From TrEMBL:
Residues 35-103 form the Bbp19-like phage domain. InterPro entries: Bbp19-like_phage (IPR057447). This is Bbp19-like phage domain-containing protein.
Length: 112
């Protein structure tokens, strides 16, 4: 009989923990794969539409700006938008430098 409060032995708990980690890793890998198929060209570059989409997401999510606001509700809304933008960008491994370069590139081609 187990002395653990949930009735599982230490070995069973360790196995469940390892299984949980494998499932999370598979979900993360799957998300990255889906985002790559959806937003990237065969050569790995972002499609023009994806580039515009992520530039807009970064702008609306205030990725490069402070999300602070004196109204707590507005601050919470801004933080939520920022969190979502960063989450979506992480699916394509877009960091700040890559996003800044992408934004510059889009600005240069806006007149085309």
């Amino acid at each position: 009989m187990s002395s653990q409060p949930d009735g599982l032995s230490l070995g069973q708990r360790a196995a469940a923990f390892r299984r949980s980690i494998r499932e999370r890793l598979a979900a993360l890998t799957s998300r990255h794969s889906r985002y790559r198929r959806l937003f990237r060209e065969e050569d790995g570059t972002l499609t023009p539409d994806a580039a515009a989409f992520f530039a807009e997401i970064a702008k609306r999510g205030r990725v490069h700006d402070s999300s602070f606001h004196t109204d707590p509700r507005e601050h919470a809304r801004r933080e939520g938008a920022r969190e979502l933008a960063l989450y979506l960008m992480s699916g394509l491994e877009l960091d700040g430098a890559k996003l800044a370069a992408l934004t510059r590139q889009l600005r240069e081609h806006e007149d085309d």
